[in-house]
Design goal:
Oligomer: heterodimer
Strand content of chain A: under 5%
Structural class of chain A: mainly alpha
Strand content of chain B: under 5%
Number of domains of chain A: 1
Distance between the termini of chain B: 83 Å
Radius of gyration of chain B: 27 Å
Distance between the termini of chain A: 16 Å
Order of helices and strands of chain A: HHHHH
Helix content of chain A: over 70%
Shape of chain B: elongated
Number of strands of chain B: 0
Helix content of chain B: over 70%
Chain lengths: 108, 318
């Protein structure tokens, strides 16, 4: 069975929350980071227990997306320089993970 | 008594006396009593802390949800959100049967420790027979619970079924044996792999599910309080700001405690002590003092850990 990479997703969520408390971002941007962190955490709680069929392309794509985004977020200079694009990438991730939940089975 | 008879009996009387002294000293020294009693007590203490942690997961999520609502006056309190998804208030985030099954698995470890304690502290192991039926029923029901979960919606439940079934068999055998040391050795030798398997699975649950839940949850709480403070601070009095900042300080403490994986560490220190018990039970008579000393050292380390980790786990309860 295939699983969403919840370890990387957790790192992304925690980075969103860190940025929401980072004075280098404007208050508006910090509120956006907080909102994204909250939405992602809601998804995480469900995805922790979700399993998918082996080879599910949507899950493989989501895991690639998670790795790329995590790398982007880890570089705070780049995140600051491209904040609008990064927030847009996070929003795309939220949408993709939301769709994944429709084809998963939960256990907890 | 003539000299021939005396010559015949003397060596036999000496041998008999030697045997009696050996037996009586063997009975007097119950080397398992103290460490196994501590093992039982610390097991129950650890189970208490972990059970509190498990049983508070859903209220923790309800608190997180309500705090988000409290932080934003535009948000309503709902059981089902506008997209039709249940909120933590409408449906438990973690299914109660799955939580209960894990707590029952923990209790099973407690029963194992309790039986070892009984074996180490009584001279009449056959007296255990009376409790066997009740215990067997309880264990049998737990086994069925996990089998049912396995068949429905809990794909990790199967990892518990094998070990639990084996423990049921092992504990059953305990009642049929009568020699304390042999009973402990048998119980540990046959029960330990299953106990380890259950503890490993519990620790993996902590690492893979609950650690991510509490770390992100604690950070969310802190970030929410910080955000609301920064938005509201211009409208707050000095006293109100101080009160909010005190809340933020407590949330920062919780976030810091969550990163330490205290529940998983508690299970790990329990596993370490159990491994030392296994080594002690399996050691030869010659190595027994050293292995029991190592077991005592592991128990001491565990005792110290419980004090620290229980405090950290307490911060994660709601």
């Amino acid at each position: 069975m295939l699983k969403v990479d919840t370890t990387t997703l957790s790192d992304i969520i925690n980075q969103c929350f860190d940025y929401s408390m980072d004075g280098r971002f404007s208050q508006l941007q910090r509120t956006a980071w907080l909102a994204d962190g909250k939405r992602l955490r809601g998804l995480l709680i469900n995805l922790l227990s979700a399993q998918f069929d082996d080879g599910n392309q949507a899950v493989l794509d989501a895991n690639d997306h998670l790795s790329d985004l995590n790398a982007k977020l880890a570089n705070s200079t780049a995140a600051l320089a491209n904040v609008a694009q990064t927030l847009s990438d996070v929003a795309t991730l939220v949408g993709n993970l939301d769709k994944l939940l429709n084809v998963a089975a939960n256990f907890l | 008594m003539d000299r021939t008879t005396a010559r015949f009996l003397a060596p036999r009387l000496v041998a008999l006396a030697t045997i009696l002294v050996s037996i009586s000293s063997g009975c007097a020294v119950n080397r398992y009593q103290a460490p196994v009693s501590t093992f039982r007590d610390k097991t129950h203490q650890t189970i208490g802390v972990l059970s509190d942690f498990y049983s508070s997961r859903n209220t923790y999520e309800i608190d997180a949800y309500l705090q988000t609502v409290a932080a934003d006056s535009k948000l309503e309190v709902l059981e089902t959100d506008s997209r039709g998804n249940p909120t933590p208030l409408g449906r438990p985030v973690f299914s109660p049967p799955s939580i209960k099954a894990r707590m029952d698995a923990l209790n099973l470890i407690g029963i194992y420790a309790g039986r070892l304690y009984d074996l180490a502290n009584t001279n009449a192991p056959s007296g255990f027979q009376s409790a066997a039926t009740t215990l067997g029923d309880n264990l049998g029901n737990l086994d069925k619970t996990f089998q049912k979960l396995q068949g429905t919606s809990d794909p990790t439940a199967n990892k518990y079924v094998g070990p639990i079934s084996s423990i049921i068999g092992t504990i059953g055998k305990l009642y049929l044996e009568h020699a304390r040391d042999q009973l402990i050795k048998t119980a540990v030798a046959e029960g330990a792999p299953q106990v380890d398997a259950i503890l490993s699975q519990l620790r993996d649950d902590m690492d893979n599910v609950f650690s991510k839940e509490v770390v992100s949850g604690a950070k969310e709480k802190l970030a929410t309080l910080v955000n609301v403070y920064n938005l509201d601070r211009g409208k707050l009095s000095f006293e109100q700001r101080r009160a909010r900042l005190t809340e933020i300080k407590a949330a920062a403490g919780e976030a810091s405690a969550s990163v330490g994986s205290a529940p998983a560490n508690l299970v790990s220190s329990m596993m370490d002590a159990h491994k030392a018990l296994v080594r002690a039970a399996n050691s030869s008579d010659k190595d027994k003092p050293a292995s029991l000393a190592a077991f005592n050292a592991a128990l001491e380390a565990w005792t110290t850990q419980i004090q620290t980790l229980a405090g950290q786990v307490k911060l994660l309860l709601h």
